[in-house]
Design goal:
It is built from 15 helices and two strands. It has 352 residues and is an all-alpha fold. The protein has a single domain, classed as MetI-like fold, CATH 1.10.3720.10. It has a two-stranded antiparallel ribbon. α7 runs antiparallel to α10. The longest helix is centred in the first third of the chain and has 37 residues. The two termini are 24 Å apart.
Length: 352
Amino acid sequence: MAVAFNLPEAIEIPREKRRRFAFWHQLSTKAKAGVYIIGVFVIVGIIGPYIAPYDPSRQVPTAAIAAPSAAHLLGTTSFGQDILSQLLVGVRATLVLSLLVGLIATTLSVIIGISAGFLGGWADEGLSLLSNVFLVLPSLPLLIVLLGYLPGHGDTPTILVLSFLGWPWGARVIRAQTLSIRQRDFVAAARETGDSAWRLIFFEVMPNEVSLIAASFVSTVIYAIGTSVALAFLGLADENSWTLGTILYWAGSQSALQANAWWWFVPPGVCVAALAAGLVLLNFGIDELGNPRLRDAAGGSRIGGRRWRPADPTPVVIAGAPIQRGRVARFLHGFSRASALEARATTRRELR
């Protein structure tokens, strides 16, 4: 016997609005949290130097090692420099450096990975050998040696060295995916129609690797942030340019920990950790969006007020049975749109 359910009327959403927010709704909660965190840092990086209360390099000896106060919200250094101003300027420099490294290294990864996977033969052997050589090199010691001998000032040597050593991981993954895609039927059909190799790469292979390339870019940015901060903390970066790493370098060199000046090293450390965490969450979301298995495992249907995943046993819901919720869930449900729709449906049934 069929059981009829009285469901609230569906609310029609305009097609343009559905298309505009379709990608956002497909992202998982972790990815959305990562987008929010990164968005905050991007906004701070854009407007930070303009709202900095002081010049980050301005020294006031009378205000040395001052705790946070109304005049200096995050305290001062041993030279009397305002730490909040250094932080607002340093976030932009760290973001610009890491994004440039991610862009250059990801471009190299895409060129080498797709070329090796699609061309095959001696090209694949040579490019794979090159990737393996860079993979086995000890990155941090090599970075220290190269930056110690490279002339010049500023962040340019750091960007070039990090980009030069940051492409092999993404190239290996992209090569493996390209080897799988070039055997697909649509690539063979396009090849039979007489399309050139470059057209096959740009119009058949690369569009199917967008999520993988995006994940590779985010991973490279995370690598650039961690490595650049570590190099600056070791004193291998330009000490005259303010980044999150140079703030930590001066805090370590001036014995901020021994002086109990926690306001000197805790804020930049928290910023580095939060920025890396946001990128990791975004990377997880991109992986789930591009991998159907991860997306199905992270998703699932909501039945009876509970989210059922594919591996869970088949749920049995009794028609008319009340949905069991905890105290917190009942409290939050009262403010939700579902609660309003349920109340509207109940009112319509009573009027009938």
